[in-house]
Design a protein that fits this description.
Length: 250
């Protein structure tokens, strides 16, 4: 009986440990531990990503810079010309008009959504509770032959055409390496409204002790990063709306 009791105790402990390892917080903790540690992630003040965006039959070189204080800028090379395509200085968001190529300020709704999105730096799961986010483990699911943990991430609601909309994404974490390999989010506007966009995340590489995916692709585009720089020196003028340029063309 004592031997049987020992086996039962061992089984109970194994089941309990397995269950505990599959809580949402445990998965996220493992994720950061496996990608450099929270201490290194917390040290990030800025990230610069250099790569190529593949859209239909086009390949567009780009650079994207994001900072801890919420600033963002995307610079592209199009038909031999290099230009800032979109930016956010923490207060004002703007982008190029695809027809005129002129810089245009975003409306108040888009700007407020951008302010909320800036909280995601450098990763939406890092200190997620402090950001007011919530996570939930949905369960295990096999995706493209890989067993994953499916985690629901709920962020601050966004505003779409004057209406507050839930801001929910689902991430699929590889059960072996505890890194996300798929992200799903609902499209909230445009001709694809109501459909789910699925992004594949792959090719994790180490940069100064922190691991980043070097390929992100969905049904619309593929981003291939060639270089990622941590805490780069950035000219703050890049983020600002080009007021002088706009005035000079009047």
């Amino acid at each position: 009986m004592s031997a049987l009791k020992s086996i039962l105790v061992a089984l109970i402990l194994a089941i309990t440990t397995s269950f505990h390892a599959q809580t949402a917080d445990e998965i996220i903790n493992n994720y950061f531990e496996n990608t450099g540690g929270k201490e290194n992630w917390d040290k990030l003040e800025g990230v610069e990503m250099v790569g190529v965006m593949k859209v239909q039959n086009m390949e567009i070189p780009f650079e994207q810079v994001s900072t801890k204080d919420g600033k963002q800028v995307v610079t592209i090379e199009l038909q031999g010309s290099r230009m800032v395509w979109s930016a956010f200085d923490g207060e004002t968001a703007w982008q190029r008009n695809q027809m005129t190529m002129e810089a245009e300020k975003s409306d108040n709704e888009a700007t407020e959504n951008m302010k909320k999105q800036s909280k995601d730096f450098p990763d939406p799961f890092l200190n997620y509770k402090d950001k007011g986010y919530a996570i939930e483990l949905i369960g295990k699911e096999t995706v493209d032959g890989t067993e994953t943990f499916k985690i629901k991430l709920t962020k601050d609601p966004i505003t779409v055409n004057g209406e507050s909309k839930p801001n929910i994404s689902h991430y699929y974490f590889d059960t072996e390496n505890f890194v996300p390999i798929i992200m799903e989010t609902e499209i909230t506007e445009g001709p694809m409204k109501g459909k789910v966009s699925k992004s594949s995340i792959s090719d994790y590489q180490e940069i100064n002790g922190v691991y980043f995916p070097f390929t992100i692709s969905n049904e619309f585009q593929t981003l291939n990063f060639k270089e990622i720089k941590l805490n780069p020196e950035v000219d703050t003028a890049l983020f600002a709306f080009p007021e002088k340029a706009a005035e000079g063309k009047k």
